Amino acid sequence: MTEAIRFGIITVSDTCFNGTKVDTSGPRLKKEVSEIFPSCKVVETALVEDELEKIKNYLETWADNGICDVILTTGGTGFAERDVTPEATRQVIQKEAPGLAYTMISRSLQTTEMAMLSRAVCGIRKRTLIVNLPGSEKGAVECLGFIKRGIPHAVDLLKSFDENIKAVHSYMQNKRPEDRDKKIEKDSISPSKVKMDSVATRSRTSPYPMLEVDEANEVILKECSPTLETEAVHFENALHRVLAEDVFAEEPVPAFRASIKDGYAVRSSDGCGNRYVKEVAAAGDEPFKDELKEGEAIRISTGAAVPAGADAVVQVEDTTVVETSADNKSEVIISINSLPKAGQDIREIGSDVPANSLVLKKGDRITPAHVGVMAMLGKLEVKVFKRPSIGVLSTGNEVKAPGDQLKPGQIRDSNKPTLVSLLKKYHYEPVDCGTVMDDPTSVKAVLHEAFSKNDVVISSGGVSMGEFDVLKRVLVEDFGAEIHFGRVNMKPGKPTTFATFVYGEKLKKFFGLPGNPVSCGVTCLLFVIPTLRYLERSTIYQFPVINVQGSLINRDSRPEYQRVQVKVDSGYFVMKSTGNQISSRLNNLVDANGLALVISHQKLTNFNVLLFDEISC
Ligand code: AMP
Ligand code: MG
Q1: pLDDT for the residue numbered 149
Q2: Ligand 2: distance of its center to the CA of 38 in Å?
Q3: pLDDT value of position 189
Q4: What pLDDT is stored for residue 185 in this prediction?
């Protein structure tokens, strides 16, 4: 059994000890330890002056009496005469652990050259690991961060927790090199509780009842309550997000009377006939202060402010020049040839958007036009609903990254890239949580990591009836998850699984999609995308369904979602199958923009087709 790691923290400082300074590093380290290792305890803290014997005394007492598994010291590692923490440490340790000191120095050098002066010593006394950290609060926390991943495993090695050691090794070996840097928590690397059944005696029927697709979606809705948390974003980054506030116009648009045409601003009461051209008003010019008088006109361009006194704009096409200046360059008198009406070609103040009016509604999904309206109103920051954070992972001993060299029997992972791209298409920002082998402890570790960072985790593979399909059992036995469904009456996608459980006080949602690439894509469309949209906005999302004629046959007993290509021909929808519908054949999704629901063994000529992509003509 794993026990909580017991930490001891010693602040070594003359000034803190004699009260001229307050010890902030010790308390900060204590807080940091409990955040990094939530299930561990800080059992001892001490404040000691820079005295070799006194430091040694603490180290020996806590190590020899088995009080602490890890002792962190902060302070006394500098070049001052009284800085003796490394010397005290060296005198008590029985084995050095130079890798820890090396890690801290090499990582610190990336930030400051002065890390070259570090004298930290790390080592082992009996079954206790002793680590010297710098005295400054920032340095101590940073250095602890650099070595935190090694600490649980070091403690396991010291205490010979065989099972934990095996779990870490299995986890590290099963992860791709780029995933290895990710944080590992102590509880995430304890072994899974799942004991693999003997193949001969395992159950040969699924314990999960078969749900219809609609029932499965109802179950999901029932189990997911949107949190509707909000965040403020800059309006230019708000595209595709959902508005969490009504947006009102603080000012009228236009804010001044604006000309709709290039022409002349006039008084309509002057009627047709000659006008003296007084001034020019270009767009962007400050509005004229003087009122337009009888017989006057102002040459005006589209978007310019109409001067006071003018109540009509006459377009240039309806005018002629009567008299020009001596150099022939400017107009002096023009003639208005069509009778102006009051208000003609003027956008009155607030005629587009009245002041204080509601312009954009809470719940709207933000389109480019919404962004434009926000720009127009000067609404620079807008409240939107937070999107769920999503982790995506693949499972399977045979599954390798697309760039890996394949051995016989191995395949390239096409599911994760498909899922990630599909989610991005719907404007989510999924995180790659890696690929995990089909062994319960590795699955447990990867799920821990995925759930620690995401609200929703989507995996592919490992949910069928095979002896290596361990996902459901790990979820139930290690996470206490409730599997709401584990089988759906559909083709492709029968093993689709949905589970929830509370992790870190949050309700996590898990979708276990089938491993077959087409099944994976289809079930993501049918179950995952609508759920994510519901979680974001709390309204039920459905893809459009159209009725299309065609000749499709389903020889299976389950309702089948056949991949089809829908087109518009002479104003009518037409569709054709994308070919062989076997669920491993990903190409049959490539040309598809629709899923035609084909009920088994029925001769139909009309089908409901769910459109999930654009229709090209
Ligand atoms: P499973 O659901 O794990 O039983 O896998 C069903 C089928 O899908 C097997 O042929 C797997 O090799 C294949 N498969 C599983 N995961 C992936 C993946 N990430 N990419 C491509 N094929 C996969
Ligand atoms: Mg598998």
Answers
A1: 87
A2: 33
A3: 59
A4: 44
Q: What is the pLDDT of residues 240-289, one digit of tens each?
A: 999 999 999 999 999 999 999 999 999 999 999 999 999 899 999 998 88
Centre a 10 Å sphere on the Cβ of residue 547 and count the other Cβ atoms it contains: 9
Residue among 398, 407, 411 whose CB has most ligand 1 atoms within 8 A, to mutate: 411
The pairing of beta strand 95-96 with beta strand 122-125: antiparallel
Q: Does ligand 1 come within 6 angstroms of the Cβ of 460?
A: yes
Number of domains, the chain: 5
Query: CATH number, domain at 606?
Result: 2.40.340.10
CATH of the domain at 359: 3.90.105.10
43, 87: one domain:
yes
| CA atoms of 174 and 435, how far apart (whole Å) | 8
d(C-alpha 422, C-alpha 359), whole Å: 32
Prediction pTM value = 0.70
For residues 238 and 296, give the distance between their C-alpha atoms in angstroms, rounded to a whole number: 48
For residue 520 and ligand 1, the question of a CB distance below 6 A is answered with no
CA 40 / ligand 1 centre spacing (Å): 38
Q: Are 273 and 369 in a shared domain?
A: no
Query: In which residue are the tokens 């829908």 written?
Result: 566
How far apart, in whole angstroms, are the C-alpha atoms of residue 216 and residue 229? 26
- Residue 480 makes CB contacts below 8 A (sequence gap 6+) with 501
Closest ligand 1 atom number to CA of residue 516: 8
Q: What pLDDT is recorded for position 190? A: 79
Q: Which of 443, 494, 516, 524 to mutate to test the pocket of ligand 1 (most atoms within 8 A of CB)?
A: 516
Nearest listed ligand to the Cα of residue 463: 1
Confidence of residue 4 (pLDDT cuts 50, 70, 90): confident
Please say whether the beta carbons of 229 and 373 come within 8 A: no
Residue 332: partners with Cβ closer than 8 Å, 6 or more residues away: 276, 277, 322, 323, 324, 325
In ligand 1, the atom with minimum distance to the C-alpha of 394 is: 19
Q: Please enumerate in sequence order all residues whose Cβ is within 8 A of that of 456, keeping only pairs 6 or more positions apart, or say none.
A: 388, 389, 390, 391, 508, 509, 510, 511, 528, 531, 532, 535
83 Cβ inside 6 Å of ligand 1: no
* pLDDT for res 64: 92
In this structure, which ligand is nearest to the CA of 466? 1
Q: At residue 188, does pLDDT exceed 70? A: no
Q: What count of other Cβ atoms lies within 10 Å of the Cβ of residue 374?
A: 22
Residue 338: alpha-carbon gap to chain centroid: 61
pLDDT digits (tens, 9 = 90+) for 135-170: 999 999 999 999 998 998 899 888 875 544 555 555
3-state secondary structure of 552: coil
User: Are 525 and 482 part of one and the same domain?
Assistant: yes
Ligand 1 proximity of 462 Cβ (cutoff 6 Å): yes
Cβ atoms of residues 190 and 164 within 8 Å? yes
* Tens digit of each residue's pLDDT (9 = 90 or more) over 197-243: 677 777 777 889 999 999 999 999 999 989 899 999 999 999 999 99
Is there an atom of ligand 1 within 6 Å of 468 CB?
no
Same-domain pairing of 504 and 515: yes
Quote the domain boundaries for residue 581.
545-611
CA–CA distance, 514 with 491 (Å, rounded to integer): 11
* Closest residue by CA, ligand 1 atom 5: 515
- 116 and 141, same domain (yes or no): yes
Domain C-terminal end among 385, 405, 440: 385
Return the CATH number at 278: 2.170.190.11
